[in-house]
Every structure is written in structure tokens, then in C-alpha cells.
């Protein structure tokens, strides 16, 4: 039987990839979440692995299976995701592809909320979740050499994504238009623009696997 000898331009490199949604509990049976299949993050982890990287794949509850041959760390909430990323450091690069829920419920109950018969919905108190991408980008000694974020936008995509890159302090941002008319959300294709110091590069619409392979190649080039 043939033995797989690991090789590739990312051999000896460690990359953290976040993927999927996070679930923020309201009570034991209900949660708040963003829509995310985890497909793009899973494809990125696979492509990095194929270039020889050791991949820590920090994933929320996604509908598709994680790749083989990566370290899978399963989390539920944004706070757990940040903790898992912290424990996976140090890394040469971090790619934050997760669709993290922006808010969590502060008064989440240990017991199921019951309808009380009045017809009035329960009052949910919410607070903002930690921004994992901004936090990683702002690290000093432990900051990965390359931090890549995503920006899923429905309007003024490039403007919003460029501002997001500035605000969060990441090196690259992968912008995509997720407005319903594009059919990208939940689909197998993606149309992205890679924004970095050199400017914005619009990639043609292609499969999420192809986007992942191209991004992994760019990451390998940046790290060598
Ligand atoms: N992100 C993160 N932690 C959060 C929110 C977002 O790490 N709490 C990351 C995402 O994984 C993505 C990037 O930040 O790489 C941008 O996420 P996005 O939701 O587009 O940006 P927000 O800053 O949350 O802005 P908004 O949702 O208001 O557009
Ligand atoms: Ca958000």
C-alpha cells in the first residue's frame, strides 16, 4: 500500500480556519444564528491541507462534514469559538470564514420558555459577541503573520468590505455579495473580491472549492 508523504508549499505551517455558524442559546431548545452551511470554510481548510498545512478547523454547528486530515474543534457559541482559536494559537495564518452571530441573549434560561397564554412574546436581552477577527488581528506577540477575514455584504460590497478591513485590522478581506439575487447563500458557487494593501482583485464567479484553492495558493505565496 502506498504511503502518503505530506508535501506542498505549506508543509510545516499551521493555519487556523473558523467555519460555519455559531449558535447562541435563547433557552435549551432555541437559538440565534446566521445562515451558514460551512461550505466555504470547509473548502478552504481542505485546500490548505492539500498544500501541506497543519489545519486547526474551528467549526460551529455546520450542516456539512468537516474535512479529513485536519484537527477539528467543534464549538457552539462565539465565546467558545474565540476560546478555541486562542487555544489553537500560535499559527502562521488565520482565516476567519465563520458566520459568527453578532449578538447573544444575556438572559438565556436553563429552562424552556413557555408561552404564557397572553400572546406576548418574551423580552430577550441581547449583548454583542466578541469579534474574533478583530481580536486576533489586534494580538501582538501571538498575532499570526497573515490574518484573513470575510465580508458578506448585501449592498455597497467593496466599500463596506474595505471599511471592515480597516476597522478590524486584518491583512486581507475576502468580500462577497450575498444578496438573495446572486443565489450565493446556500449555493455551491461564490463570487469574491480579494482586498489587500495592493488593491482589490475581483475574481470570476467559480465553485467554492475553486475559490478555496485559489485563496490557499495566495496564502502559500504570502507565507513563503
Ligand atoms: N467575525 C468574527 N467575530 C464576530 C463577527 C465577525 O470573527 N463576532 C468575522 C467573520 O468571521 C468574518 C468577518 O469578521 O471574517 C466579517 O464578518 P461580518 O459579519 O461580515 O462583519 P461584522 O463586523 O459582524 O459586521 P456586520 O455583520 O454588521 O456587517
Ligand atoms: Ca456580523
UniProtKB/TrEMBL annotation:
Coiled coil residues, start to end: none
Cofactor(s) it depends on: FMN; Mg(2+)
Domain DNA/pantothenate metabolism flavoprotein C-terminal: 11-221
GO terms of molecular function: phosphopantothenate--cysteine ligase activity; phosphopantothenoylcysteine decarboxylase activity
Keywords from the UniProt entry: Decarboxylase, Flavoprotein, FMN, Ligase, Lyase, Magnesium, Metal-binding, Multifunctional enzyme
Annotated cofactor note: Binds 1 FMN per subunit.
Reactions accelerated catalytically: (R)-4'-phosphopantothenate + L-cysteine + CTP = N-[(R)-4-phosphopantothenoyl]-L-cysteine + CMP + diphosphate + H(+); N-[(R)-4-phosphopantothenoyl]-L-cysteine + H(+) = (R)-4'-phosphopantetheine + CO2
Assigned EC number: 4.1.1.36, 6.3.2.5
Annotated binding of CTP, by residue: 102, 112, 130-133, 150, 164, 168
Pathway(s): Cofactor biosynthesis; coenzyme A biosynthesis; CoA from (R)-pantothenate: step 2/5; Cofactor biosynthesis; coenzyme A biosynthesis; CoA from (R)-pantothenate: step 3/5
Region (Phosphopantothenate--cysteine ligase): 15-224
Family affiliation: In the N-terminal section; belongs to the HFCD (homo-oligomeric flavin containing Cys decarboxylase) superfamily.
Known function: Catalyzes two sequential steps in the biosynthesis of coenzyme A. In the first step cysteine is conjugated to 4'-phosphopantothenate to form 4-phosphopantothenoylcysteine. In the second step the latter compound is decarboxylated to form 4'-phosphopantotheine. Catalyzes two steps in the biosynthesis of coenzyme A. In the first step cysteine is conjugated to 4'-phosphopantothenate to form 4-phosphopantothenoylcysteine, in the latter compound is decarboxylated to form 4'-phosphopantotheine.
Full protein name: Coenzyme A biosynthesis bifunctional protein CoaBC
Source organism: Paracoccus maritimus
Shown chain mapped onto the complete sequence: 187 to 410 of 410
Amino acid at each position: 500500500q502506498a504511503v502518503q508523504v505530506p508535501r506542498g508549499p505549506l508543509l510545516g505551517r499551521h493555519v487556523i480556519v473558523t467555519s460555519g455558524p455559531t449558535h447562541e442559546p435563547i433557552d435549551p431548545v432555541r437559538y440565534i444564528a446566521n445562515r451558514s452551511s460551512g461550505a466555504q470554510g470547509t473548502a478552504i481548510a481542505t485546500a490548505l491541507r492539500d498544500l501541506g498545512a497543519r489545519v486547526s478547523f474551528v467549526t460551529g454547528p455546520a450542516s456539512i462534514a468537516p474535512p479529513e486530515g485536519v484537527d477539528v474543534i467543534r464549538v457552539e457559541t462565539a465565546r467558545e469559538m474565540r476560546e478555541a482559536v486562542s487555544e489553537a494559537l500560535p499559527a502562521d495564518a488565520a482565516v476567519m470564514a465563520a458566520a459568527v452571530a453578532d449578538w447573544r441573549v444575556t438572559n438565556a434560561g436553563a429552562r424552556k420558555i413557555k408561552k404564557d397564554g397572553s400572546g406576548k412574546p418574551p423580552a430577550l436581552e441581547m449583548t454583542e459577541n466578541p469579534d474574533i477577527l478583530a481580536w486576533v488581528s489586534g494580538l501582538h506577540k501571538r498575532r499570526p503573520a497573515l490574518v484573513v477575514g470575510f465580508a458578506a455584504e448585501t449592498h455597497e460590497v467593496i466599500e463596506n468590505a474595505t471599511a471592515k478591513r480597516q476597522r478590524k485590522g486584518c491583512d486581507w478581506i475576502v468580500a462577497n455579495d450575498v444578496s438573495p439575487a446572486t443565489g450565493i447563500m446556500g449555493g455551491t458557487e461564490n463570487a469574491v473580491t480579494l482586498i489587500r494593501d495592493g488593491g482589490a482583485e475581483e475574481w470570476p464567479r467559480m465553485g467554492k472549492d475553486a475559490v478555496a484553492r485559489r485563496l490557499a495558493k495566495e496564502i502559500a505565496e504570502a507565507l513563503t
